[in-house]
Amino acid sequence: MSVLVYTENWEGKFKKLSYELSSFAYAIAKEMGSSVTALSIGHVADDELKSLGKYGVSKVLNVQDNRFESLDNKAVADAIAKAVASENAKVVILAHNNEGKAFAPRLSVKLNAGMVTGVIGLPVSVEPFVVKKKVFTQKAFARIQIKTDVKVLTFAQNSFDVVENPVDTAVEAFDPQIGDGEFTTKVLDTHKITGKILLSDAEIVVSGGRGMKGPENWGGLEEMGDLLGAGMACSRPVSDDGWRPKEEHVGQTGKIIAPNLYLAFGISGAIQHVAGVSSSKYIVAVNKDPEAPIFESADYGIVGDVFKVIPQLNEAIKEMKS
Amino acid sequence: MKILVLISNVPDTTTKIRFTGDNKAFDTSGVQWIINPWDELALTRALELKEAGGVEKITIANVGTNATEPTLRKALAVGADDAIRIDAEAKDAFFVASQLAQVAKDYDLILAGIESSDYNGAGVGGMLAAMLDIHSVSAVSGVSLENGELKVQRDIDGGNQSLSVPTPLLAVVQKGIAKDPRIPAMRGIMMARSKPLNVVPPADVEARTEFLGYELPEPKAACKMVDEDNAKELIRLLHEEAKVL
Amino acid sequence: MNFEFTEEQLMIQQAARDYAQRELIQDVLERDEKAEFPARHVKNLAELGFLGMMVPPEYDGGGMDTVSYVLAMEEIAKVDASMAVIMSVNNSLVCYGLTKYASEEQKQKYLKPLARGEVIGAFLLSEPEAGSDATHQYTSAEDKGDYYLLNGTKNWITNGNSASTYIVMAQTHPEKKSRGINAFIVEKNSPGITIGPHEDKMGMRSSDTHSIMFTDVKVPKENRIGEDGFGFKFAMMVLEAGRIGIASQALGIASGAFDRAVAYSKERKAFGTEIINHQSLAFKLSDMAVKIENARNLCLKAAWLKDHHQPITVASAMAKQYAADVAMEITTEAVQIHGGYGYVKEYHVERLMREAKLTQIYEGTSEIQKIIISRSLMK
Questions:
Q1: A183-233: pLDDT as tens digits
Q2: Chains with 3 or more CB pairs under 8 A to chain C
Q3: Cβ neighbours around C311 below 10 Å, total
Q4: Which residues make up the CATH 3.40.50.1220 domain(s) of chain A?
Q5: Pairing mode, if any, of strands C209-220 and C224-225?
Q6: Subunits touching A (CB < 8 Å, at least 3 pairs)?
Q7: For residues A146 and A131, is the Cβ–Cβ distance under 8 A?
Q8: Is B237 inside any structural domain?
Q9: Quick one: which of A182, A188, A276, C237 has the fewest CB in 10 Å?
Q10: Which domain holds residue B47?
């Protein structure tokens, strides 16, 4: 009996998400009195695989098979199911991202397992097995009991701390024995997106208003956008005056967006503007007017001169990244 | 080619979310119901494919009580050819997928929205594909027919891919699959009157999960102010406290 | 009695709402400022069937009832009263008049493209010397045997330049007074028609209003609607039904402003709380809500009567007078509730207030409606 975690890699490397997932799996395993096995598919060096041990993974099943590169939903789900069977895992954890959402539902059917996606934080209890997730598109939380013997979870990023729990880690080669006929997805072409980030897809949005004083002053914001991989936005007067392209206008009459983080510089926060961004997870406002309505909607704020604040922020972001 | 589009009936996205007395159930009083936005995009793309030729029929399927029929009629009014409603209250993704598996067997392409905007389950599409033992592709942002062959675009981390996948295929679709959803025209609304909406009895299936209760988030805390001369502190807070950087 | 809408009526309401909130809202302020005709929206709404909603399907219309029309008009007018009046003139004056009174040949030739919204129509009754009192028409239509010769000027013509098909009222037999008036279908590109300059209006600026001059315009005999001398009765019957359209437009202007006032009151804070929590404001909103509901009920009642082929003279006059007055009152209050914000264009309510004013004036002033209503009391 164990907890199995599917740790995807990005060109042979794990990301913070992988360690967060491992820490989460470890915490559950501890409550259940079991241990964590990770399943890795792809070419990941042994050292990198062993790094999972720092976060409580005691065994890594290592699948090195180029055929899985096409991320064939059926083949990968079947491979994970084989690993679950060989480990007799009772809880299977995937990330709540493109891959996790693709594989987990298929896997749950294969395993006769109940599934909850987008789980946040530790289970409320493991006996009965009750977890929490956000529902109604961020507007509420639900407690959900999984009633089956085997449970499949996808875990919402950034809802559990990365915790070090060093254990000895054994890396074992694993062959899930998936026949060639199972791989039907053929990749014709892969595009990595470089350059501009679409506003509607952006996790972070950097936005400027009239307080930026003119189009020539956008350099600092664009730098911030590049540093954060953010989309660029602006308030209505800014686009009306042609300082920025119309597509960047967010607000009631412009685009309505809901990024994780919305950074508003020199935007007073008229109701029309706020209506377009109020679903953002976090709103940060920088404005020289302490009475600006934007501060009522903001989570974090600085009253001050945008031209003094922006360079400081960019510097701090660079430090954080290094 | 025959296309099946899975339709979920959800509260309008502007609905103020409330729960009944003991927070055990969603309060549906005064709620406006709509086609789940991702399902609506899926349907829009199906209609575009049909207009481009090569699609003989678009069927929509839903698991729900007769209260979902206005939503299904709207889908018929924008251009679906017929509808199937499996007469049961949706319990969880497994339950819904099991019901749909009864009626989803004879289609070349099944389109499912990536999640519903109410329970955000993201499970039904993949589960149904597994139950039918057909191929599936998730995070699909484009589907096209080229000489009768399906070409699919999907999002991957930091990019996208184009794929060829054999039929029958279940595509779990998201933003990008189609532009704006359609508004039904008078003609469509009139024609929807006479399009078949078949009601099917539910299969005897147990849900595997149970919603025990709900909570609403805490009211918004006051804005946390950072000093102008110490702006770097803001980045630390965003990184360590809010965890959004 | 049944106050429940059908599934279809609700679907039409939602379709209109979706279009208004998704599309019209995007450029309504800009079009108001530039007094620009919403050509793109007219085309889109025509494709959706909103330009010929109540025309039977055999003439390429939507085949919907008047209740649906009221619901749709309210939703469109909430956002864009100019688009609403374009719709209203095409639907409830031009298409309705032709559906009800035109010959089969006229329907085939003129009604079908109007119902499809491929072209739009205008209704030419008002004259420089004859507004509210339409019994005197100075525009003349001289009977020349196989054609009529039109001379005169029409004023305040909505869709004046954008329309392709005119319905023109003109005097053929002055001695018979109103019984000598005829109604004609006139193609805008007929020789002898001059279109006056675009009126620079206070509101509804995105709909084009013109005066139209006729100089020896030949109109084929087969383009006369109904029997010789039917024109005045035709105009009155059509206007009576048309009032439901304008009443619903006024209702939409009122409820659009009201929605904004409520939303603003829930967000704007004063004296430590959202202003809706101040009783003086809450009571004001409550009074506004009652008036809007009354206006809506009057509109729907008139529509229901029309759908059930019952007399609508008084009902449509009541709906039009009340809804127009309510629109003026509610939009004025909505501006007041918004304070300084209400007086700037970005917040829409000042525009709705400018637009409300016209609903008290055109297609029969509020005073004319009172004449109609009071006449029914004198009987």
A1: 999 999 998 755 567 675 678 999 999 999 999 999 999 999 999 999 999
A2: A, B
A3: 11
A4: 199-321
A5: unpaired
A6: B, C
A7: yes
A8: no
A9: A188
A10: 2-217
Question: Which residues of A are less than 8 Å from B38 in CB distance?
Answer: none
Residue B186 domain-assigned (yes or no): yes
Of A287-301, B91-105, C151-165, C176-190, the range with the lowest mean pLDDT is A287-301
How many separate domains does chain B show? 1
- Interchain contact A198–B (C-beta under 8 A): no
DSSP string, C197-232: PPP--SS-TTS-EEEEEEEEEEEEGGGEESSTT-HH
Closest chain B residue to A261, measured at CA = B244
- Residue B236 falls inside a structural domain: no
Least CB–CB distance from C26: residue in A253, A270, A271: A253
Q: Is the Cβ–Cβ distance between C261 and C338 less than 8 Å?
A: yes
Position A254 pLDDT exceeds 70: no
Which residue of chain A has the CA closest to B229?
A: A309
Contact B28, B34 (CB under 8 A): no
Contact C29 A296 (CB under 8 A): no
Q: A–B: how many Cβ contacts below 8 A?
A: 250
- Domains along chain C? 7-119 (1.10.540.10), 122-232 (2.40.110.10), 239-378 (1.20.140.10)
Q: Considering chain C, what is the average pLDDT of its residues? A: 95
| CATH architecture, range A2-182 | 3-Layer(aba) Sandwich (3.40)
Asked if residue B82 is part of any domain, the answer here is yes
Q: What is the nearest CA distance from C11 to chain B, expressed in angstroms?
A: 7
B42-96 pLDDT, tens digit per residue, is 999 999 999 999 899 999 999 999 999 999 999 999 999 999 999 999 999 999 9
Q: Is C363 a catalytic residue?
A: yes
Instruction: Return residue ranges of chain A for CATH 3.40.50.620.
Output: 2-182
Q: Which CATH number fits the domain that encloses residue B195?
A: 3.40.50.620
Question: Under CATH, which number does the domain A199-321 receive?
Answer: 3.40.50.1220
Q: What is the structure's pLDDT at A196? A: 64
Confidence of residue C2 (pLDDT cuts 50, 70, 90): confident
- Report which secondary-structure segment, H or E, holds A39: strand A35-41
Q: Say which amino acid occupies A41.
A: I
Contacts of C260-267 with CB under 8 Å at 24 or more apart are C260/C334, C260/C338, C260/C347, C260/C348, C260/C349, C260/C352, C261/C285, C261/C288, C261/C333, C261/C334, C261/C337, C261/C338, C261/C349, C263/A271, C264/A271, C264/C337, C264/C338, C264/C341, C264/C347, C265/C337, C267/A271
Q: Using the Cα atoms of residue C231, residue C237, residue C243 and residue C248 in order, give the sign of their dihedral.
A: negative
* Whole-angstrom distance, CA of residue C69 vs CA of residue B218: 43
User: Is residue C276 predicted with pLDDT exceeding 90?
Assistant: yes
The reply to whether B238 touches chain A by the CB within 8 Å rule is yes
> For residues C377 and C362, what is the distance between their CA atoms, to the nearest angstrom?
24
Q: What is the pLDDT of residue A255?
A: 67
In chain C, beta strands by DSSP E: 121-124, 140-143, 147-158, 165-171, 181-187, 193-195, 209-220, 224-225, 269-270, 273-274
